[in-house]
Write a structure and sequence with these properties.
The protein is an alpha+beta fold and 281 residues long. It has a domain at 204-267: 2-Layer Sandwich (Arylamine N-acetyltransferase fold), CATH 3.30.2140.10. It has 9 helices and 13 strands. The strands form 2 sheets. Strands 5-4-3-2-9-8-7-6 form an 8-stranded antiparallel beta sheet, covered by helices on one side. Strand 8 (161-168) and strand 9 (171-178) form a beta hairpin. Helix 4 (52-61) packs across helix 5 and helix 8 packs across helix 9 (261-267). The longest helix is centred in the N-terminal third of the chain and has 14 residues, at 21-34. It is globular.
């Protein structure tokens, strides 16, 4: 599996190794604070490896982050070792898409977790959605509005389809939609390959970073850095040089870059309001 002690050191978790809700909550909060979402490998033309040894080496030992398949696969392994019941799911991402936009293939991994003490209760757990990280488990009760460290969310249901929704100033906004079918680790291999290699994949053309701590939600889209303190207004600025990018990676995201900051800065689109995609993407 993984070196659980090394993982816990990485996320600064020092609590008991027990399958309880308190442990689950602390692990999720520690994970999103310590292991940022990042897609540097995909931007550089690499397909992330999902084997446990690869996840351990990259996200735990090398002070790197990863995207959903890596982040939630690593968390899944840790929760299973603690004796929690984990169901892996796959979702259609609809975050910030125009109403009526064509449905894309499923491209996101999330987890549904139950605890031995209350197996009939379940929690939506997701440490890998870049754009709106969840810093806490959500009780799997459709319609229940839940306040988390990074915002306010709810799970909606329409027949067999569930949606994660976030409350924004404009109202409730869907993040992704999913059905309850369980996925095995091997089922994510083609999804990972598709997301990392398809010409229209957002991660092939843009650098996306996100870290969520109790004090701050920090996000980087290419050269646009957004800092949202828990008790204040968002601060937005542009990254103007490779040296500044290196400083942000170290001081804001606590990340070791996959390549030099100069190479990363040269690759990213600049001066845009949102992500860049090829015309036919």
């Amino acid at each position: 599996m993984i070196d659980l002690d090394a993982y816990f050191r990485r996320i600064a978790y020092s609590g008991p190794h027990t399958p309880t809700f308190d442990a689950l909550s602390a692990i999720v909060a520690g994970h999103t604070a310590a292991i940022p979402f990042e897609n540097m490998d995909v931007l550089l033309g690499r397909v992330p490896l999902l084997a446990p040894v690869a996840l351990q080496a990259k996200l735990v030992d090398q002070r790197r982050g990863g995207y959903c398949y890596e982040q939630n696969a690593l968390l899944r392994l840790a929760l299973l070792e603690l004796g929690m019941q984990v169901t892996s799911l796959a979702a259609w991402v609809v975050w910030m898409t125009a109403p009526g936009a064509p449905v894309r293939a499923r491209s996101h991994m999330l987890l549904k977790v139950a605890l031995p003490a209350s197996p009939d209760d379940a929690w939506l757990v997701d440490v890998g959605f870049g754009g709106h990280l969840l810093g806490a488990p959500l009780r799997f009760v459709p319609g229940l509005v839940q306040r988390t460290p990074g915002g306010t969310e709810r799970i909606a249901q329409n027949g067999d389809v569930f949606s994660l929704e976030a409350e924004l100033p404009a109202g409730w906004t869907p993040v992704y939609r999913f059905t309850p079918e369980a996925y095995r680790p091997v089922d994510y291999e083609p999804l990972n390959w598709f997301t990392a290699t398809h010409p229209g994949s957002i991660f092939r053309h843009n650098l996306r970073l996100e870290r969520l701590t109790p004090e701050l939600r920090a996000g980087l889209l290419n050269d646009k850095l957004t800092l949202r303190p828990a008790d204040g207004a968002a601060q937005v600025r542009r990254i103007g040089s490779a040296d500044e990018l290196a400083q942000v990676l170290e001081e804001v995201f606590d990340l070791a870059p996959a390549v030099s900051a100069e190479e990363l800065f040269e690759r990213i689109p600049k001066g845009l309001g949102g992500a860049w995609l090829p015309p036919d993407g």
